[in-house]
Amino acid sequence: MQTRTWVTILIIAITSACGGGGGGKSTSPPLEPEAFFAEVVRKPFGSTQRDCAVSLSNNQGTVGDIVRIANVPPEMMDHATIRVISDSSDGEPSYGLALLRNIPGEEGSLEFSVPINPNGDLDGGTVELELGDGVRYCQRQSFVIQALPEANPAAASALADTLENWLEAVIEIYGQDPQTIRNTQLRDLDESLYLLKLYQIMFEGGPEAIIPTLRDAAADDDLLTERLLTAIDLEGAYAEQLTQFAMLPPLTLTQQAGQAETRTRQLRNGSASCEITLPSLSYDFAGADDIAPVMRIANSQAVANEVFSSINTAAGSIGLIPHPAVKAAAGIVGAAGLALQTSYGIVTDLLPSNWGTLTFTVTPTLWHEDRPETLLGQVTDAKAEAFSRSHNFSKDVVNHAFAAATILGGPAIGKRVPAGKLNGVYVADDLLGGVSLAIQDTMNSAIEEASDFLTVCVEKQSFGLIDVSEDRWSQANINGSAIVWTSQRDREFIGKRLGDAEIELVIRESEFGSSKKASRNVTTGRADVVSNVASISVKEPGEVITVEASRPDGAYSRDQIGIEVIPASAAVLQNTVHYDNDRVVFTLKTSTESKKYPFELRLFPTGKMLEPLDSSRDEIVKILNEGTLTINYEKDCVKPGDSIVFSATLDGFADNEQSVVWDVFGASVVDSDELSITVRAPANPGSFNVSAVATANSDVEDEVEVSVQPGCLRKILYPIAAFTTDGNGYYGTSDPDDPNPVCPTGEHDDTQSETLIVDETDIIAPPDIPDQSELWQTKQETLNSSLYHQSTRYNAIGESPNESCPSYSFSASSTGSAIFGSTAEGGLSVKLDANLQTECKSIQDDNGDYVECAGASANTGVSGFYYLDIEEETTLRLSGSLQCSNLDGYIILTPVTATVSRFRNGQPVEPSDDNPTGVFDEEGSPRSPQLVNAVCKDPNELIIIDETFTLAGAEAGHTDLVAISLLGNFLITPGIIDKEGYGMPDISQIEPPKEGSYTGGGIIELELQLETK
Predict the structure, then answer these.
(1) How far apart are CA 258 and CA 263, in angstroms?
(2) Is the peptide bond before 908 cis (omega within 30 degrees of 0)?
(3) Where are the extended beta strands (E) located within 407-482?
(4) Tens of pLDDT along 174-206?
(5) Cα dist. 406→4, 432, 536, 793, 930 in Å?
(6) 0.85 cut: is pTM over it?
(7) Rounded to an integer, what distance in angstroms lies between the CA atom of residue 122 and that of residue 150?
């Protein structure tokens, strides 16, 4: 639109004739057209006619009315012009032009202002409109120009009065005295007031200025100017803006600090920053009520520009009529409209008009599904910073001054427009006559002085933060279905569905004339039920059991957990206890009927739910009673002919089901009853078997094999094993003493672990030997692990009041077993079977994101001894294997070693030259006392151990103690960190983990057998 407006000014400047207003009443005879203009517009604007589907919004209108043309061909949009053709009194057609304007945001549409009939008839008449762009033109459309309204005789003088009031209002808004500005020469004013002086000159600085020209027109006998002003109502546009200025609160204008006191001539190109800063507005707006009307006025400039542009277009269309009097009257109207448009900005650019960053608080940004509906979420504390515009006025004022002077015409003191062509018609220089860049002497002098500065500015100014929290000032919207308003006006909401939503706040443009938008995210989080066990094995039907559960992802009602027995008759709930609003412990009496097993317990949330409900929130605990039978016997070392008592232990059976059926193979039965049997070992070394089957359930059975040895090796293992994972619950980062924490303070269990660890003080090292009862002959110890981790971790980010608390859910598990065993024949074994899983997630942090992982590990150690009493030279064989299967993850393996040490009289035996180690190989040569050093290097590997060695005899009359010590360690964790091999890590090469799911595990099994050859 601006481009066509300046085209309007340019055409007016070229086609305006010299002199003031002219014309007459509606009864005046038509004015004679100028011959050259008729010649220019006689032909269509284009060489090819095309069938256009254009349509007019009205087919008639009064001079100055705006008419819309729709469906303009796209290729004609930028260069289209309308020829206006009408009949004249001499029978020859008369031609004129109507100026076009683009319509912002509407493709294919233009506007034009209804001109005076080209034949000069002020009472209008029927004309034809022809659209062309210099290449092609459309078929003509009929249009009726209605009569120019009768003049308000006072229109020109009323506009002159209004312009005087306008000029004084603008100067007074700047805190200056209008009379002082009038009486002071430009060169004598402070530079910051140059702009006001130039506008004063443009309005009233000489006989050719706008106001004197209007007063001359008012004094004329003809009323053409008055008729045009009556049609366009320019005085009304001025009066409207004066009314708005009167609504401004009292303003205090202050010089902005830091302006340059000297100017550099190189800045005349206008590309440098501001040197001369106009006064700025200093006003303390108490709030939105104060600033809203001021911002509406400041932002009404866009509306005012539209009005002024329409006036200029109308004046331009009228000025294109080839009659000097009409053009002169149109020039006066156009100049007055231009003055209003260009001076309006020097007031409105002082006022707050734009918004900076809009901020607001949303509590909470993480909505927990168990948050009570009485505890609503809310949007509060919406604030935005208000700013004025920054603008360089210097070029504007010079350009506008030139344009205004050119529109008004006057003495031809500028250069004449050269001869040339217009629409293909040659136009001679003398034919254009007085058409010139006519600049009145006073204006010309002022512009020459003003050209010394081209960097006078109003700088952007802040008016502080304005509270726009009330619904009157801003509108709150929810994008997404995870939350819903309970009151949109009060900005209160509740959770509705699991997921994410966006709260958008928009400052109301209707209240301020300017809008701003900002948004915050809200996440609705679930609170799953977590049990501390996946299953419970009932040793005996009817047993009382306890089940513990929590809701680590909850926030307010974590104790709201229900329990359901499936089927209902399998157990009876006896008690429910809540601990620290975090855990719930249910006590149940199980059924005494074996047939009711297994059954299930369903743990489920009972607090406020968010849609859609999902069964994955429930936790199922299985209650098992498969029944177990264990055969026990106390004698570890069985020799030929020994009597051994075996007993049966039944778990998971009722009192009336406590009996077994015994069976013995390879030995003789001495005595038996329902749960015990006495067996005599065979007379020769070897083995025998004892088995038992539960009378109530033949599928439940146990069997043991017993070795019969002429003599028993002494040996021991010290079990060392541990499975771990992180504690369940939620991990927070807020201060526990914070009354309004943005994140939960954190309530979670300690690290979960299953351990089988011998106290360090209980390990007996040679030359001391444990008591016979503590030695391992036939024995097994087992550690089973079923550890599962679930947690939610929070990390506060941002600064108040814009803090947020994103959450992250983690899961991990550490399951498997560690088994330590021995046999009477000299066998020792250690087995680790591990299955690990964990997650690593990227955590947002103000200092940079980092990756956090849930922990999981499995560790088993090898620690034990063989003990031998040596009097004479003895040859032995240590055999077995170390086998690794499916190793996966981050693994550290310490080699398994077996090392010989000798003691005499409770002291270590010192080596001698002929017997440096006391250990010999099969050829009789001394060898290293380290018999075994084995470690896996591949995920699947079998290492065979087979060492035959000879121990030297003791000195005559002495018995030496020889101990073979066993050491080793197996550590497995998920592979969150890359590491080559299974050795110790290089700390300098460790890199932080990455997001993802990781596993670890495998089987490591050591078997050793020591025997005498």
Answers:
(1) 13
(2) no
(3) 420-422, 425-427, 456-458, 462-467, 474-479
(4) 778 889 988 888 778 776 677 778 778 878 877
(5) 18, 15, 100, 74, 112
(6) no
(7) 10
